[in-house]
Write a structure and sequence with these properties.
Order of helices and strands: HHHHHHHHHHHHHHHHH
Shape: globular
Radius of gyration: 22 Å
Number of helices: 17
Structural class: mainly alpha
Strand content: under 5%
Largest sheet: none
Mean pLDDT: 86
Length: about 475
């Protein structure tokens, strides 16, 4: 704990250091662009992705810790967290992945075309978009949150637990949006180390604060689900201040001086044109999880808690893939901006293969040894939750590789600015998951296993649709 304030102070001093001389900033930016455009693909992608992947694994540990703290509060709290978790991950996926990836791609395309003035104006545009979308999410959850949790099948106590969490997390999500927007700008310049370092810091602050406020460690009040949400909000606020300071002081390689005067509607279209399509993809992914949650809730609180732990790990694969995908977005965006589509495609297949291998290996391991994950949260007496969780991993986890393949190509498509096929692949996934689950529930006696089998087959379809589309020229044909 003592090291954390020191780390925060050191990073704040770095962010607040004097603005880099224009010549030094230009040289640093030129070196990063040369790396993205000319260096060997696999080593460069590995070098750029490594800090991101490390940070994402730590963020995954943060989410695991949150689930553990909820389990200490009781099975009702764990089930309540399962209800609110899709919306929490939707916030992260939109701010860091969909809109964040669009921000990073827009910045990298501008810099790949040797236009740092446009990159600076796009940075201000990104901040305005982040604030606006955060306010919209907070308002929607405040008005419809409790009703939404009830529709998912939660009982009164479970809905109350979910609502307590949501009423802190979503008003505070502006900090998450601003932090992820600023980090996306920095990634778009080719700098992956600072965003990864800041995310490590955010996780290091979030875990003890979430546990402390939830369970009442030391002199902190025991706030339960409210405290569980307060930790990440405070941690992301710290990260946002540092990242924004880094950019404002010119250390990203361009200056914001005069950027406000260069704002125009085309810059909003540049980000939102890709970001809106990417957001549709993200919403479809989350909606699929939500619909499956609603179906599983019919089989009782124990099944919901077990599935919630399985779905949480599925969601945790997204940040891991994002670690590779963020590097792919920057590399592909720079190469598309420079007119080098062939190299951009090679980057896409290299990164997608790595993501599928990593996530697929995790899935196969948990298909054989599901209690490595479930045993961290569930007591042996929780037989219903354990049985549901084991069935989920046995039937779904072997298909994680296809999920990793499809999601990595989604990030690649963001860099290319071609988002039609990722959206179509998510629509196909939703149709197979929902339609297959309903069909199997009505025509077989598989019960909740039928839902899980449909989820696995939907992942297979998701990965194969987008991979085949890009392989057959989805980036070279004009989108409607």
């Amino acid at each position: 704990m003592d090291a954390q304030p020191t780390a925060v102070a050191r990073l704040m001093r770095t962010a607040a250091a004097p603005t880099l001389p224009p010549e030094a900033a230009a040289r640093a930016q030129a070196a990063r662009m040369h790396l993205l455009l000319e260096a060997p693909i696999a080593p460069t992608l590995a070098r750029l992705a490594a800090p991101n992947v490390l940070a994402m694994f730590v963020q995954a540990a943060q989410s695991i810790a949150e689930a553990y703290f909820a389990s200490l509060l009781g099975l009702t709290a764990l089930a309540g967290l399962a209800l609110v978790f899709p919306l929490v991950m939707l916030t992260q996926m939109l701010s860091a992945g969909a809109i964040g990836g669009a921000i990073s791609a827009a910045i990298s395309r501008a810099l790949g075309a040797a236009n740092p003035a446009r990159a600076a104006a796009l940075t201000l545009t990104a901040g305005l978009i982040a604030i606006g979308l955060a306010l919209v999410m907070a308002l929607l959850v405040a008005v419809f949150g409790a009703r939404f949790f009830t529709l998912l099948g939660g009982g009164p106590d479970t809905v109350a637990a979910a609502t307590q969490y949501a009423m802190v997390f979503f008003p505070g999500c502006v900090a998450i949006w601003l932090c992820n927007a600023a980090l996306s700008v920095i990634r778009g310049t080719g700098n992956m180390t600072l965003p990864a370092t800041l995310l490590l810091l955010v996780s290091a602050i979030s875990v003890p604060l979430a546990g402390g406020f939830a369970l009442g460690w030391g002199t902190l009040p025991a706030l339960g689900m409210t405290g569980l949400a307060l930790g990440p909000v405070v941690a992301f606020a710290v990260g946002a201040c540092i990242a924004i300071g880094h950019i404002a002081m010119g250390r990203a390689g361009f200056t914001l001086a005069g950027a406000a005067q260069r704002l125009d509607p085309g810059m909003f279209r540049d980000i939102l044109g890709v970001g809106a399509m990417a957001s549709i993809n993200t919403v479809l992914t989350t909606a699929t999880i939500i619909m499956m949650t609603a179906l599983v809730s019919r089989f009782g609180e124990g099944a919901l808690a077990g599935y919630g732990l399985g779905a949480r790990l599925e969601f945790l694969m997204i940040p891991v893939i994002f670690g590779i995908g963020a590097a792919m977005t920057a590399m592909i965006g720079a190469n598309i901006g420079a007119g080098r589509t062939d190299r951009a495609l090679r980057v896409a297949w290299t990164g997608a293969g790595a993501a599928a291998g990593i996530v697929g290996s995790i899935g196969l391991g948990l298909a054989v040894f599901p209690d490595l994950w479930l045993g961290m949260f569930l007591d042996p007496a929780n037989t219903a939750a354990l049985d549901a969780g084991r069935s989920y991993f046995r039937l779904v986890a072997p298909f994680y590789a296809f999920f990793g393949l499809g999601l990595a190509l989604y990030f690649a498509s963001q860099g290319a600015g071609r988002m039609l096929w990722p959206v179509l692949s998510s629509l196909a996934r939703m149709a197979v998951a929902l339609g297959g689950a309903v069909l199997l529930m009505r025509t077989t006696d598989l019960g909740v296993d039928g839902v899980f089998l449909a989820i696995g087959m939907a992942m297979l379809v998701y990965g194969m649709v987008i991979a085949l589309a890009i392989w057959l020229g989805g980036w070279t044909r004009k989108e409607p």
